[in-house]
Amino acid sequence: MITQYNVSSHHTPRDSDQRGTELPYARNLLWMVFANSRGGQNRIRIIFSLKKSPLNAHQLAKEIGLNYRAIQHHIGVLEKNNLVSHVGEKYGTVYFLSTFLEVNIAIFDELVASLHQGRKPGRTN
Length: 125
Prior knowledge:
The chain is mainly alpha-helical. It contains seven helices and two strands, in the order H-H-H-H-H-E-E-H-H. A hairpin with a 6-residue loop joins strand 1 and strand 2.
């Protein structure tokens, strides 16, 4: 006998992220890190670079056109807020998007589009 399970009644933590349970938290965090701070535009540029491929701080500095120390600062902010992860040590450290940001990338993209259009995210006009 084959037993069928009602998949829609079982929620994993990732399912709840995708269904919006974590949306207010994710939306507020992304707003604070990218839109409500002086370095937000540079952090957005870093995320766009890391969306393409993992990079180390020197590679990010060259690609974005910021100095190495500025990249280190922004990476520190992104890591502290669980938006970027890393592998390796010292100069060989490679950065990539965290699982949290990957799950909430649609919110990030919406935020960036809203900022580009000059309006606060979540507004319809």
